[in-house]
Queue: 4 jobs
Job 1
Amino acid sequence: MRIDVHTHIWNDQFDRLDQFIGSLDELAIDRACVLPIAPYMRNEDMADLVERSNGRIVGWASVLPFAETTGIPRVDPVEDLRHAIEDLGLKGLKLHPLIQGFALNDPGLVPVVSAAGELGVPVLFHTGPANGRAGRMENARIELLDDLAIMCPNTIMIAGHASPLGPASYLARKHPNVYLETSITWARWCKLMPGLASMVTEHAGADKILYGTDFSIGRDERVTGLNAVLEELDPADLEKISGQNAARILNL
Ligand SMILES: [Zn+2]
């Protein structure tokens, strides 16, 4: 069972769900976690995609933790999350420090991140730089999750795009509640450095790494590029990374 914990269907692609699922078939992905970013996608729309996907999409929620930094009215993020998980059946929470305007170690995150733990769902954070112009790179430094992991010890948090070149594996070793997700950075750096994927997997622990690609329609190379660098891994470790770990933390 291959589970991709980081994919996107953008608002203007809702009517291309068949194409998205066709790509999953071609790329041998059994289930795709589709990640929204509030306020640019509604949790109700995500629930609708899940409903239409024949079990292929694992829908995630997004809420806006700090409305004052974006100028867009919000509802209380804890209430918003509770509704998304308990009423809409979504399975995780995506938060983006650059687009949503906060630092990864802002204590103001504690109520909503702790609520995710109480609701039994993981939180995936964008970490590291991004191509867009939004936000301060400083706010998305993966080291900042060190603080948040201590502030919210009962919430599983996933470092998105966790670079194999940085301190990510130390974070995963240090904190039982921190996991690493592979999209973009692993394909880029491990391709240049054979042996890197195996070394980081051994250091972080194969139980703490999640297969994620940042796939969206037309971006097949993000999947094939990652698959190529993961081939060097021990087969049992690859099984964990490709799906077993995600199935465990998402209760699939
Ligand atoms: Zn993404």
Job 2
Amino acid sequence: MEYGYSGLQRLFGGASHVCGMRNEQGRTIIDVMSLKTEDKCPSCGEISASIHSTYTREIQDTPIRNTETWIRVLVHKFNCVNPGCEVKVFTESLIFAGQNQVRTHELTLMALAVARTVGNETASQSLGALGIKISNDTITRIYAGLDFEDDPLIEEIGIDDVSNRKGQTYFTVIYDLNTHRLLALLEGRDVDSLKKWLRGHMKVRLVARDRASAYASAVSEILPGAVQVADRFHLIDNMLGYVKDIVKAALPNKIFISGGEVLENPPEKVASAPAVDPSLLSRMHYDNSPPVGEDGADIEFESVSSDISSPQYKAQAESRKAKQQLVELSILVDQNKHKDALNQPVVNRIAK
Ligand SMILES: [Zn+2]
């Protein structure tokens, strides 16, 4: 009989097999086994089916029912079969996490999505309440090195220039044309750093780029055999530019229309005195005197500042604290409730 974790299995695709799910010290653990029988060496690109060993990786995933959730995956190490490769043994790649990552791509994305609207410290606390264990420092680190996964064997790339928000600093961004994953971010728009990068990626045969001729000459120089194309955005941008030029050339600078008719010549200028309603002017009169109360006395401007030693502020702080404790308590209660459910007999199905 087919039973177990078919729904969960679907989330992992065909390359991994879900063996079971259980609760371990308040954490939900999904046991997964990789079914890959071969993989590509990250250094030379040679496919190897020679298994060296297996080992277990623990990778934190997005929480299930607000409980800290970890994927414990049994992965392979392969021997590189290319005698000329400097890598002898390599770890197989997973679709849900990078080579040395302890978090799934989805979890990283979730943390960044929260942290972009609040500070990293607040994000860490909020995510903690939702079942995600991630420190303030880790979020800062993720931001600092926004996962650029270089691939020296990449064949199809896109190159574009981007600037920071103020438009003062420019970068050259290089991405995988098929997956749109970022490969590198080079400072500036100069060709020297791009040439250096291209020299380390000699398998590139297709380059999508913008119109900047500097990029074009760099690609032609280092990779004369590579095909250069303009991506869709820049193609449309180019086309609109040409259409604009054609329309501009065909139309006069100014077109005069009067009563629905296009005039051959500009209309005669008619001098007229501007008519302004005098009541409008009197209404605009600016009075700099302070506002007056019902008793005829001036109303003083009072600056109400938040005084943290005031009884009102203290009461609010107390109430906030009490609310926070309540939330923490309810999370604990919630987790205990689910623990029993998860501790039911675990289905341990090993692929045969
Ligand atoms: Zn290799």
Job 3
Amino acid sequence: MSGFSEQWLALREGADAAARAAALVPAIRPRDGRTAVVVDLGAGTGANLRWLAPRLACPSRWIAVDHDAALLARITARPFPEGTAVEPLALDLAQALDRVPFAQADLVTASALLDLVSEAWLERLAAACAAARVPVLFALTYDGRVAWTPRERGDETVRELVNRHQRGDKGFGPALGPAAAGRAAALFAARGYEVSSAASDWTLGPEEAALQSALVAGWLEAALEVAPAERAALADWAARRRAWIASGASRLAVGHVDLGGLPERRNAEDAEGRRENRSTSLRGDGSARALPAGAPCGAPAARLAVQRLTRPTRKPELCGAPRPLRPPR
Ligand SMILES: C[S@@+](CC[C@H](N)C(=O)[O-])C[C@H]1O[C@@H](n2cnc3c(N)ncnc32)[C@H](O)[C@@H]1O
């Protein structure tokens, strides 16, 4: 079992969908000219597919990879976007990355996965993607920033303890945790990728009280594992945060990063494709219409809004944060 419950994934799906950076969805060029093959790593119950498939503007066949077969079974148990086919692949990615069919893929993607993995595993992933010359899109990587409103004593202590906990082994070796998005940008850039990033922060208000409460519970547990001697202070912090949530006045911003990457050869082809297709592949409002076989599908014009990276830049501040937060070391 992965430790990620179906209930938790359902609870976060709305906040994830609201936070994601649509501008990073790449223009993908199906190898067969018709249907894009998308490999989704750590697919869980399919939230990434439900968000991304309708934005690809061409039919897609998803290879949904996860080591938790029970979560994968939930993908096909509910409706999924029209023009989408799903093949579950139950696999421990930590042990068997080489069994992922990268060579078939038109896009490799993951959501809420990279902060769980180690640097060594991420290097292997970057090497496998680069060898297949496949575009990548990694969404919702937690980056260590947290801002509660109103503030309470203990918020910063808990954030630091949680971020230490994030660096523990989550099955892939010592996890990168909050450093993951920056390391991924650097490792893919080193393999010749043109990397773009955008903030995908959760901004949770009173309507997301259930998600806020689940985070308090999860963060309390994580903080206690790191600092068991602080039990009384941590329990007191949780009680005060729960009281704010119950009052309807609690707001919470949680920092995430979305990362997109185009492989070296695709950069040149895609720039060419953008020049050729901009006038024919998009409507005036930027939405896609039917494309000729072999044309890239996605939202090339929208990508102009995002930040291009060859190296990780400073993290953006959280929207609505009462003052700038310094990212943890
Ligand atoms: C935070 S969840 C994200 C799930 C889904 N991508 C989403 O956005 O809802 C992380 C997912 O990675 C999967 N996972 C964790 N370790 C894994 C491993 N070693 N091999 C394959 N999948 C793994 C978990 O089962 C879980 O579904």
Job 4
Amino acid sequence: MPKILCDRFQNCYFFTKKNEDINGIDIHNELDKCNSIKDIFDLVKDCVKEATRESRAGLDIGLAELGNKPNALISAYYPFGSNIIVLNMTPLRRIMETKPDILKPYLFAILLHEYIHSLGYADEEAVREMSYAICRDIFGEGHPATRLSLDTKEFFPYLIYPGGHPTGNELRVIEVEDIDYIG
Ligand SMILES: [Zn+2]
């Protein structure tokens, strides 16, 4: 556990109880049951609250076509101080075309990372460590969410279009009617 993490996080539930349940909830199972980006985001918020006792409300998720370069990808970003997490649509579409079974782990890892930023953690390395620690403790070391939380590069064949993909203009905030977006 890196020194950089806050005390609350070091004392978190996940590091003292080595199983996959929080409050009797099996997270693997909960992730499988998610039917939308919002469901996954709610699960992320529950896990972070369990791990750090921190939470915040009033965050939107926006979808934008941010494209990808032949060897680079911005999966998502959180404009610091804002109330929106912007998800790049491009890798979501690419995943659905290449390896749909990593869609939920991918969304979990990416939303977790940005959500931790939104709680006021600006340091990229610290956020990565926190995301990784949470994923590892609830899903295990080899789970795609855990691997994605450290680095998405390993999964680039499923996330990026090899020849690159252009950026679009639209930013769409997810509403309730997008509940069926996944699958
Ligand atoms: Zn970040």
